[in-house]
Amino acid sequence: MIEVKELTKSYGTTVAVDNVTFDAHAGEVLGFLGPNGAGKTTTMRILTCYLSADAGTATVAGYDVFEESVEVRKNIGYLPESAPLYTDMGVIEYLNFMTQVRNIPKNQRKERIRTVIDTCGLDDVIQKDIGELSKGYRQRVGLAQSLIHDPPILILDEPTSGLDPSQIIEIRNLIKNIGQEKLVLFSTHILPEVSATCSRILIINNGKIVANGTPEELSSQAKGEEIVHITIRGTQETVEAQLNALEFVSQWNHIGTDNGIVSYQINAVQGSEAAEALFHVVVENGWSLTELRQESVDLEDVFLNLTDKEQA
Ligand code: ADP
């Protein structure tokens, strides 16, 4: 549905998008995650035909974004970061206006408006002017306009930015629902957003894609090694002699000794199931175990490792 190859775009000397390649398929909710300034908006503006690129290719729904922009626009709904809403218009009036902008045949307009009102939960505010609405409802109106022509692809730029926590949850749920039928590509600089909503994550940093995978894949890629904390009653010398003899242990650090109880941080080869193996070593040696804990690597570690820590 979206195919991007070696896309590059600079503003003067700033390379905003640097040789970006990825694709996206129907039925995916793809999270475009990166710190501010990473190049998310620039990429989305190229895909939605608002910006040209310096190099590379991009097709959306099979159409070239540089050569076939009319067809591309028909196939996408776009919600820019600050949605261009007309605050003095009523909700229905605005959606009706958007049906005209999108050239929806007259006899289908009412039905399309009804559908997006239902999808976006706008029933309570249809009598109101957009200017009277909370930011959360305005964002829903923005989503409704992006869906008005029933496009197969939705591109949403920071759709939850500036919303309060309950509004954020509502918009995330909406995105998930919409994602059951359409390809949704949405950007965010907030990690929990993608882990809560996406089937796949692209992490972008300094214009480059630095990771691409499901939340689970990214977490397991980051693991590299298993890290286990172990505390046992035993003599330091014997315990360390055993640790040195274990093939799956790549490194150990003595954390401390207290009243005959010794603590270690153990780095072990990925996939060795080190916690269980260490448990057996403890039992075989007749030591008593006071703590055995495996450190988990989560998505946050992945994100922080791959992007500029101070910006994330
Ligand atoms: P993001 O959406 O991830 O925050 P952007 O695509 O907006 O990132 O920006 C990527 C880089 O390009 C940043 O360094 C930003 O300062 C720069 N940039 C974006 N738009 C412009 C512009 N119109 N003129 C000059 N530099 C820009």
Model description:
With 312 residues, this protein is α/β, with parallel strands linked by helices. The chain has two domains: 2-220, Rossmann fold, CATH 3.40.50; 224-296, Alpha-Beta Plaits (2-Layer Sandwich). The chain has eleven helices and 14 strands. The protein has helices at residues 40-47, 69-75, 91-101, 106-119, 135-147, 165-179, 191-197, 215-223, 236-245, 274-284, 299-306, and strands at residues 2-11, 14-24, 29-33, 55-60, 63-64, 76-79, 153-157, 183-188, 200-205, 208-213, 225-233, 249-258, 261-269, 288-294. The strands form three sheets. Strands 6-7-8-3-9-10 form a six-stranded mixed β-sheet, with helices on both faces. A four-stranded antiparallel β-sheet has the order 2-1-4-5, covered by helices on one side. It has a four-stranded antiparallel β-sheet with strand order 12-13-11-14, with helices on one face. Strand 4 (55-60) and strand 5 form a beta hairpin. Helix 3 (91-101) packs across helix 4, helix 4 (106-119) crosses helix 5 (135-147) and helix 5 runs parallel beside helix 6 (165-179). The longest helix has 15 residues, at 165-179. The two termini are 29 Å apart. The model has no long low-confidence stretch (mean pLDDT 90). The structure holds adenosine-5'-diphosphate. Adenosine-5'-diphosphate binds next to strand 2 and helix 1.
